[in-house]
Amino acid sequence: MRLDTMVQVIWLVAAVLALFSVGYLGYSRYLAQFVELDDSRATPAHKYEDGQEYVPAKKPVLLGHHYSSIAGGAPIVGPITAGVVWGWVPALAWIAIGNPLMGSVHDFVSLSASLRHEGKSIGYIIGEYVGERGKNMLLWFAFLTIILVVAVFALVVAIVFNAYPEAATASLIYIGLAVLLGAYLYQLNLPFIPGTVAFVTAMFVGVWVGTQYPLALFEPASRAPASTFVLFSGSGSWIPAAGSLGANTAAWVPIILLYGALASALPVWVLLQPRDYLSSFLLYTGVGGALLAIIVGTVLGTSSQPLVTNLEPFYGFIGRSGAPLFPLLFITIACGTISGFHSLVSSGTTSKQLNQESDARLIGYGGMLGEGLLATVALISVALVAPEVGGGIGLALPTFATGGGIILTSFGIPTSFGGPFMALVLVSFLLTSTDTAVRLGRYMMEEIIGTPESSVESFAADRYGNAVVQAVPAYVLITSGSWLTLWQLFGGANQLLAALALLTATVWLANWSESKQLVSTGGPMVVMVTITVIGLLWLAIHDNIYAKFLDSAWMAEATTFAMVSAVVQILIAFVLIYLALSLVVMGYRNIQRVRENPSEGGFSPGDD
To answer: Which of 141, 204, 307, 426 holds its CA 20 to 30 A away from the CA of 237?
Structure first.
């Protein structure tokens, strides 16, 4: 590494903070006025309060839920992977510019649109304007994406638990504390602030307990402390996917899926709201603490190593893995810049808990900026550690905890505590995202089915039955080993879903008033459709047809399963493209019709 390529990472933080500040103070204020947020209107949480799904939440509690739900493993894995392959400059630019102009707009307008449509999903909203066929197409698209999300996040949690058994113990403690906090606040109606202080303190004590008593189901990764308590002896070879994932990782996967299924079925006040509120303190401390530690470590020189980039700024248009920067960078970094999954959270759980309309600005737009900061911390972590290319998801996650632990040494925190703490920060994101995703999948299916007319439909819409419908295929995807090949499909589906959410918002605005400009949502929508369709075509045609089926060497060695997997990838890619372009055409026709005949517009702010 040449010395002149090294840059102090504090300049990366300064660039992101400057652009994000301009976005929140300026652009988000304009958007809030543009969609006419009005606290005099009752939100769906108050109009339809049922103690189960529609439950008004205090702004900090709901921000904690929303931030925890949207910030899963992807804003960590994506920037780390992109930084290693193409260099830190293109990765940072996509985060710093794309987030305030595209991702935060996407989250905010998805939340605002749902707010004005009874807390319904983006699928329901698009159906209001383009018809039942469009609604069902988008809902099925979203439901299939949710299964990919559940599979990827459950696997990521298992990988982190294997690398950092301390995080497994701490996670169990903080889930238990969350249940107690829910009873404290909603059943006993005890004081909010004293409870917050007590339970947050107990949660950080739980982190220390985790470092003292790490927990593993089978023998964990080599970096695990010698004091790790291993629950089961033996190799665990009988566990599905133990050979490819390792017994400990493979054993955690079904437990995490079971947790997600059960947690998604509980009333939001039992676990979702209090857990997300508690975990938000972990997340704010981890992300905010890391950013502050970079400043302190740079100014005072207190970190264990110089806080400078050890990655090249740019490795070339064809990155170190042989992948072209365009369009793959924009699919590799999804969460952290723009992510369709967020539209499901915004229009799924968050809109049903919003206490007043003005809260949408901080929670929707500001929450996404917060995820951008997490992506920045992840990129800085990999820039410090500079691992070799090609490690994939198994390398990215430990790198985040290792790099984060190095950053926290600026405060005098030893890496033996800082590393596990950052691992717990990551897990708290992931656990929240996993069970929120299962809950959102149920919402999707309920809207697809409507009133059940058969036992099969009743099972699919039931809160427990639907969890099974999602968890089982997610588990099959993981244990088959196909999760490695599905990562790009997950990114492509996620980004296409973002484009469709922006399409939904654009159609809503067009039907609201002919005076509403459509550039803020329509511009990012066009960009995301173009990038993602090209990316999926690259995946189908280049990575599968050209690099596999037209390669005689690959065909000679490929197993039947490998061929079937490649065919499935090709089919999924083309199906996603077909669904997305069909919905774009439907949306465009609706916008064209209402702009030519404004009287046909179908929305007013009082419709909900």
So the answer is: 426
The closest of 411, 141, 395, 424 to 293, measured between CA atoms, is 411
Q: Over 407-446, what HEC string results? A: HHHHHCCCHHHHHHHHHHHHHHHHHHHHHHHHHHHHHHHH
Kindly tell me the burial class for residue 179, based on how many C-beta atoms sit within 10 Å of its own C-beta (0-12, 13-18, 19 or more): middle
Q: Specify whether the CB–CB gap between 72 and 297 falls below 8 A.
A: no
Distance, in Å, from the CA atom of 295 to the CA atom of 344, rounded to the nearest integer, reads 35
* Residue 442, pLDDT score: 87
Helix intervals (H) in 301-410: 325-332, 341-346, 359-360, 367-385, 392-408
Residue 482: what pLDDT?
Answer: 56
Task: Find out whether 235 and 247 touch, Cβ atoms under 8 Å.
Answer: yes
The C-alpha atoms of residue 540 and residue 564 are separated, in whole angstroms, by 13
Q: Where exactly are the structural domains of the chain?
A: 7-482
DSSP class of 541: I
Q: Where are the alpha helices (DSSP H) in 480-518?
A: 483-512
Q: What is the pLDDT of residue 484?
A: 53
Report the DSSP pairing between strands 215-216 and 229-230. Answer: parallel
Q: Which residues, listed in sequence order, are joined to residue 8 by a DSSP beta bridge?
A: 308
Phi, psi angle pair for 216, to nearest 5°: -135, 150
Structure tokens at 535: 């990316």
pLDDT in tens, 160-187: 888 888 888 988 998 999 999 989 988 8
Summarize the chain as % helix, strand, coil (round to 5): 75, 0, 25
The three state secondary structure string of 325-349 is HHHHHHHHCCCCCCCCHHHHHHCCC
d(CA 373, CA 21): 12
Q: How far apart are CA 115 and CA 66, in angstroms?
A: 15
- 373 within 8 A of 12, measured Cβ to Cβ: no
pLDDT of residue 2: 42
Give the distance from CA 512 to its chain's centroid.
30
C-beta of residue 177 within 8 angstroms of C-beta of residue 237: no
Residue spans of the chain under pLDDT 50: 1-4, 607-608
Q: What are the pLDDT digits (tens) for 534-562?
A: 999 998 899 889 988 998 998 988 777 67
pLDDT tens-digit profile of 475-485? 887 876 555 55
Q: What burial class does residue 371 get, using C-beta atoms within 10 Å of its C-beta: 0-12 exposed, 13-18 middle, 19+ buried? A: buried
**391 C-beta neighbours (distance < 10 Å), count:** 15
pLDDT at 426: 78
Cα(349)–Cα(64) distance, integer angstroms = 12
User: Which tokens sit at 136?
Assistant: 């069902």
